[in-house]
Amino acid sequence: MDEYRNKAILLDDESFGPLLPFIQDERITDVDYNGTDLWLTDVNKVKVKKDASLVTPRFLEVFINKVSMAVERQFNPANPILEAESDELRITAVHESVTTTGRAFCIRKAPAIPRYNAAGLIRQGYCGRKTLALLVNCVRTKMNFVICGDTGVGKTEFAKFLSGYIRPQDKVITIEDNPEWHYAELYPGNDCIAIKVKKEHADGAGKTNVTAMDYTNAIKTCLRLNPSWSMLSEARSKEAKSLVECFSTGVRGITTIHTDNVLKIPDRFLNMIQNSLDADRMVNDIYDFIDIGILLRMKEQSDGKSRRYIDQMCFFDRENGKNQAYLMICDGQMTGAAVPSSIQKKMERVNITEPFVFDFGGRDENA
């Protein structure tokens, strides 16, 4: 890990000074300095306080200046928020003029490494073997997934895991504003285009630079590129309508949203679409073109570590003019419900006759 680079930022190892060991440690996901204390968060969501003397006033000034110069943006009382990113890092700094605790920064890591494998997920109680086999078979059947949950539960990481079962010849287009998916790096040789959405921001004169590539335009561009799969890192707003329309063309996809129940996914999409005139048609389209909802949760254990797990999973379906949601997992346990006949038919078309069976083999460490 010699350097972190893309068009937005270029920082070499020396820039991170005493923080470099934490940046290089694959177990650490976040490095936070709140103006007084230095905190580290690891992959198990365990936070520990480190020696804050590592962040000297001199280092803090030099580090923030390097980030500021790398993105060619000022950092001062008139521009108190500084954001930058590389292929694997997201850096946010807050100026002391707008805090009472001093200059602060957060470094979030999204490395191009697979954090999940089948064996580990089953061993850690993330889900059972039958559940994982069912979800992998749904990927093989080319179904559409919406993964939901609170911030920090690992929605994108699980989406990355599922995307590993897409056929190499199926073109995948990822759409995100901050690089987290890393599909091309994780699965080299697979057909992939990574589209980067650019945020609006104010330049030095305070004028807003409006970029053409927002999420909605990115989804429309995706459709012109002959994709098999469209991966939207997170559906947050009006682009949800374009995503459903994208799915209606036969493009498959995986996305994440924020909600606390899989049965709320249709309503959450309607709220994001914000167009009551299309509400009836859109709710039918949601049930028609979104196949699977997954809710992830995190539970703190007695050892201080946090365990992530699949709390809910359901199939959405529209058949004979009726919208249905079939809850397959509730409170982390399988409900015993049968796979809906419409889902079974889709699987049978690709020669999957046992929805709950998949041979993970040595590919995933003898799952």
Description:
- This protein is α/β, with parallel strands linked by helices.
- The chain has two domains: 3-109, Beta-Lactamase; 118-364, 3-Layer(aba) Sandwich (Rossmann fold), CATH 3.40.50.
- It has a nine-stranded mixed β-sheet, with helices on both faces. Strands 5-4-3-8-7-6 form a six-stranded antiparallel β-sheet.
- It has eleven helices and 19 strands.
- Helix 8 packs across helix 10 (279-289) and helix 9 crosses helix 10 (279-289).
- The chain has helices at residues 20-24, 57-71, 118-123, 129-140, 155-163, 183-186, 215-223, 239-248, 265-273, 279-289, 341-349, and strands at residues 3-5, 10-12, 28-33, 38-42, 47-50, 81-85, 89-94, 104-109, 145-148, 172-176, 192-196, 201-202, 208-209, 229-232, 252-257, 292-300, 306-319, 322-330, 333-334.
Characteristic terms for this protein:
27% helix; Rossmann fold; 2 domains; nine-stranded mixed β-sheet; 11 helices; six-stranded antiparallel β-sheet; 19 strands; 367 residues; globular; disordered N terminus; alpha/beta; Beta-Lactamase
How does the SSE layout of this entry go?
Layout (H helix, E strand, L loop, with lengths): L2 E3 L4 E3 L7 H5 L3 E6 L4 E5 L4 E4 L6 H15 L9 E5 L3 E6 L9 E6 L8 H6 L5 H12 L4 E4 L6 H9 L8 E5 L6 H4 L5 E5 L4 E2 L5 E2 L5 H9 L5 E4 L6 H10 L3 E6 L7 H9 L5 H11 L2 E9 L5 E14 L2 E9 L2 E2 L6 H9 L18
Parallel strand pairs: 9-15, 9-16, 10-11, 10-14, 14-15
Antiparallel strand pairs: 1-2, 3-4, 3-8, 4-5, 6-7, 7-8, 12-13, 16-17, 17-18, 18-19
